[in-house]
Amino acid sequence: MSVVVDAERELLDEVRRIAEHVAAPVADEVDRDSRFPIEALDALRSAGALSAAVPEAFGGAGVSLEAIARCCLELARGCSATAMVFAMHQIQVFTITRHLDSGGWYEGYLRDLHREQRLIASVTSEVGTGGDMGRSIAGVTPREDGELEFEKQAPTVSYGAYGDDFLTTLRRAPDAEPNDQVLVLSRADQGTLEPAGSWDTLGMRGTCSPGFVVRARFAPEQVMATPFAEIMNQSIVPISHILWSHVWLGIATEAFERARAFVRASARQKPGEPLPAAHRLSQVMADLALLRAEVAQALADFVAAEDEPGRERLMTMASMLRFNNLKLAASEQAPLVCAGALEAIGILGYKNDTPYSVGRHLRDTLSARLMVANERLLQTDAALLLIAKEA
């Protein structure tokens, strides 16, 4: 256990260094030019961070979800796009490690991931499903040579052009029901990405996640054996909401710290005078504390459920409600903190060329409401509340 703890401490120290000295200095440029934060990703690769959560048996450091979540927060303080790319990648890594078949193809893949520091992109959205990850139109199609293939129209593919591998949701077969889904991991050299959209967005511009028509040809063993519905409830949904919320918390924390630096500088310039901005800052601090508490408690709840046999609690309606509500609360609270920081700072926070600028932070947190749209989650929660025995 001490070896893992030491690895987690070293990882967090290195990620903080990358966030401060590599990601942060180019964060505004990444946002302005809508370009991928390649410097930070290269630094994370060099640090072995992309395989940090891979079990030690397959070459990784075996660090905990708690450690990865903290890394997401620290990276977000430096560059939102870097943090979100890192979080999305780690969601895929945890999904694989928690549901792989012993002795199968995926064990060899994890060794490759560690050795080559491969970046996994996500292909879960699909044109025609209305944003419902629990349904697919494209299916796994057998070929005469024994291999399999698919073609999927995805309105967004997380950092698609920069992914080394793609974890894709599909129908089990072309004639399967839309909710009879599987996950397929394909390598970039096994398929093609046909551009199907642009990425000129309000925020999170550096994640570079436009739409693509994704095609791949692959071996049968690259289909995960565990049904997607189980993977979704036990891993993808709760871990996504946990890591995303840590990213949003990191962005909001940085916005608050910029506001506090501004208020302190103002106090030094006008000693003894009342500062209305200080009063506003105290309200922002309270809002940030609420966000921090919700994010921390959700992580603790997941870890407690994870320790139970068979992860049965994670399959309950109460668990679905709990992590949906984390996403709803965090996605609404983070922009509130950033907007409050902007009000405390004033014009120097509104301008993009000052040390106190928080415009990028506010824009990036606004994306939180759209990553699995809040309206869809509210509709899901409303239906669950009618039938769940406990919420």
Short description:
Helices cover 55% and strands 10% of the residues. It has 391 residues and is an alpha+beta fold.
How many strands? 7
> Percent of residues in beta strands?
5-15%
Radius of gyration, Cα only, in angstroms? 21 Å
| SS-derived structural category | alpha+beta
Give, in spatial order, the strands making up the sheet with the most strands.
2-3-7-6
Uncertain segments are none
Quote the average pLDDT: 95
- Please summarize the sheet with the most strands: 4 strands, antiparallel
What is the terminal-to-terminal distance? 35 Å
Helix content: 40-55%
The succession of helices and strands, N to C, reads HHHHHEEEEEEEHHHHHH
The 3D shape can be described as globular
Individual helix count = 11
General description of the model:
By secondary structure, this protein is of the alpha+beta class. Helix content is about 55%, strand content about 10%. It has eleven helices and seven strands. The strands form two sheets. The protein has a four-stranded antiparallel sheet with strand order 2-3-7-6, with no helix packed on it. It has a three-stranded mixed sheet with strand order 1-4-5, with helices on one face. It is globular, with a radius of gyration of 21 Å.
Q: Key terms for this structure?
A:
single chain; 391 residues; alpha+beta; four-stranded antiparallel beta sheet; three-stranded mixed beta sheet; 11 helices; 7 strands; 55% helix; globular
What's the arrangement of secondary structure elements?
Elements: H1 2-33, H2 38-46, H3 65-78, H4 80-99, H5 105-116, E1 120-123, E2 141-142, E3 148-154, E4 165-171, E5 181-187, E6 191-195, E7 212-218, H6 228-269, H7 276-306, H8 317-345, H9 347-350, H10 359-366, H11 374-387
